[in-house]
């Protein structure tokens, strides 16, 4: 009896799995059909391409070496 219950559980799982994925694929198909219908009507004019923008960037300069001052004495208490 237990084996039949496990078999029915497995069949039920497979049926639900197939049903859920069938619904998801159907919705995906409907969305793709709506997108193609929206894109189809009338040839559209191509928008003019804007001129590219070029930025002038200065090259980084190395920092000048700082002159070191004389070391000072540190006193610890």
What would you note in describing this structure?
- The structure is a single chain.
- The chain has about 80 residues and is mainly alpha-helical.
- The chain is built from one helix and no strands.
- It has one helix at about 1-40.
- The chain is flat.
- The mean pLDDT is about 85.
What is the strand and helix layout of this fold?
Elements: H1 2-39
Distance between the termini: 88 Å
**Major pleated sheet:** none
Helices and strands, in N-to-C order? H
Helix content: 40-55%
* Average pLDDT metric: 84
Provide the gyration radius in Å: 36 Å
Query: Based on CA inertia axes, which overall geometry fits?
Result: flat
Low-confidence stretches: none
Strand content: under 5%
Q: Would you report the number of β strands?
A: 0
- Helix and strand content put the structural class at mainly alpha
Number of helices: 1
Short structural description:
This protein has 77 residues and is mainly alpha-helical. The model has no long low-confidence stretch (mean pLDDT 84).
What keyword list fits this structure?
single chain, 1 helix, 77 residues, mainly alpha
């Amino acid at each position: 009896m237990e084996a039949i219950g496990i078999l029915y559980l497995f069949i039920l799982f497979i049926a639900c799995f197939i049903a859920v994925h069938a619904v998801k694929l159907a919705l995906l198909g409907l969305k793709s059909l709506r997108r193609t219908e929206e894109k189809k009507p009338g040839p559209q004019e191509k928008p003019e391409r804007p001129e590219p923008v070029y930025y002038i960037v200065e090259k980084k300069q190395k920092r000048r070496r700082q002159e070191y001052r004389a070391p000072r004495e540190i006193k610890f208490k």
